[in-house]
TrEMBL record:
Enzyme Commission number: 2.6.1.76
UniProt-recorded name of the protein: Diaminobutyrate--2-oxoglutarate transaminase
Organism of derivation: Saccharothrix ecbatanensis
NCBIfam families in alphabetical order: dat
Family membership noted in the UniProt record: Belongs to the class-III pyridoxal-phosphate-dependent aminotransferase family.
PROSITE patterns: AA_TRANSFER_CLASS_3 (PS00600)
Length: 432
């Protein structure tokens, strides 16, 4: 049946779809960290709907909440409802105290890309400026503006008139330093380079409306930004009154071991974008949290129909209840360490692993070319070998050479151990 469904999909859906090409699985049902395909095979799910399913599949408390909300109200536009107000209150309460009272919230629409659009428009209007600084290796989405801010060139091929005025600054990808420096002696040159670019008014980059940054590049290859790099950017942005947008679509909602990743960097961003993990169960919703001083919006400045998903608000509140009650952020840190340690052990003596890195449960294994195969071919082989052994993994990175781990945030020690055993066996089989 799986083959039939995959063929049926290929016959009438656009070629732009990505996941089923590399992961030929037709899903019947799922529970927790496990997916069952239509032929009855069970897989550990380390993709989690692209980092969305914070509490895994079909969490009973989230289901109960949504079922209850279904009978009350599903879509509420932007009318106030008790659950919308509660969701908002809880989201704002998750912010560090130092900025909480300065921030407002805006509901942006169903997708992470919608949040990116809103954030950039907000900063453009507030500053009256046009350009945006993004980073090499960034991913911000597929809409016109979000793709313009995404550095990967392949999806942009043949697309004219994307957003003008986007400058891609070097990202501190220390494993492959864009400036060919060594992390212990570089003095964070990449960060300084951006500072110099911003200060040099003759350098061809006019003062931008915003800087947009992923604290851990996700699609770019699970690359945590070093603290000093981020602080340098935040410092200079503040000094020059350039709003700093942190795109926490993937890193947010607990994925890195704090509610937002920026908390681990000691910075105070002006705009935070959140989406994927907000509802805990994959219901579409995105928000921006932004400093009130940027609020020059008037009625109609940024609207849209799907900004009132009360099902997502309800599950989002229950997700936070579970997160707090079960100390889920501790679990993210502990399971993250378990996976990183296990992967580093498996990589010892392996000729195909180039780097193991991550923050919380956003982990990447960068592969190396081997026996005539390129690094991306090796990554694909590892992904396939893991799939045959019952583990679903994602691939990302500059040259598609990073195998990415994005498990649910409530993953157990046992399941993490199972996944490590699969990856270890898969590594050996690829090397044979
Ligand atoms: N920003 C980041 C950092 C992302 O990882 C993604 C999705 N992978 C997006 C934005 C876009 O989100 P969406 O696909 O929901 O539009």
């Amino acid at each position: 049946l799986g083959r039939v469904l995959l063929e049926s999909q290929a016959a009438n859906e656009s070629n732009a779809r990505t996941y089923p090409r590399k992961l030929p699985v037709a899903i019947d049902r799922a529970s927790g960290s496990y997916i069952t395909d239509v032929d009855g095979r069970v897989y550990i799910d380390f993709l989690s709907g692209a980092g969305v399913l914070a509490l895994g599949h079909n969490h009973p408390e989230l289901i109960a909440t949504v079922q209850e909300q279904l009978t009350r109200l599903t879509h509420g536009l932007d009318f106030p409802t008790p659950v919308r107000e509660e969701f908002k209150r809880r989201q704002l309460s998750m912010l560090p105290e130092s900025i909480r009272d300065d921030m407002k919230i805006h509901f942006c629409g169903p997708t992470g890309g919608d949040g990116v659009e809103a954030a950039v428009k907000l900063c453009k209007k507030a500053t009256g400026r046009g350009g945006v600084i993004a980073f090499q290796g960034s991913y911000h989405g597929s809409s016109h503006a979000a793709m313009s801010l995404t550095s990967e060139t392949q999806p942009k091929e043949g697309l004219h008139n994307l957003l003008p005025g986007v400058h891609f600054a070097p990202f501190a990808y220390c494993h492959r330093c864009p400036l060919n420096l060594k992390p212990d002696s570089c003095g964070t040159r990449c960060g300084q380079l951006l500072t110099n670019t911003l200060r040099d008014t003759h350098g061809g980059v006019p003062k931008p409306a915003a800087i947009i940054l992923e604290l851990v590049q996700g699609e770019g290859g699970s690359i945590p930004a070093p603290v000093e790099f981020v602080r340098e950017i935040a410092r200079e942005a503040k000094a020059q009154d350039i709003p700093l947008i942190v795109d926490e679509v993937q890193t947010g909602c607990g994925r890195t071991g704090t509610w937002f990743a920026f908390e681990q960097y000691g910075i105070e961003p002006d705009v935070i974008i959140a989406s994927k993990g907000l509802s805990g169960m994959g219901l579409p919703v995105s928000i921006i949290l932004y400093n009130k001083r940027l609020d020059t919006w008037t009625p109609g400045s940024h609207i849209g129909t799907f900004r009132g998903n009360n099902l997502a608000f309800a599950s989002g509140v229950t997700y936070l209840d579970v997160l707090e009650r079960e100390h889920l952020l501790d679990n993210v840190r502990t399971r993250g360490e378990q996976l990183l340690d296990g992967l580093r052990a498996a990589a010892l003596g392996s000729s195909i692993v180039d780097d193991v890195r991550g923050l919380g449960l956003m982990i990447g294994v960068e592969m190396r070319g081997f026996g005539g195969a390129t690094s991306s071919e090796v990554a694909l082989r590892l992904q396939r070998a893991a799939l045959r052994r019952g583990l679903i993994l994602e691939i990302g990175g500059r040259e598609d050479c990073v195998v990415r781990l994005l498990p649910p945030l409530n993953i157990t020690e046992h399941t993490a151990g199972e996944a490590l055993a699969v990856i270890t066996a898969a590594l050996r089989s690829v090397e044979e």
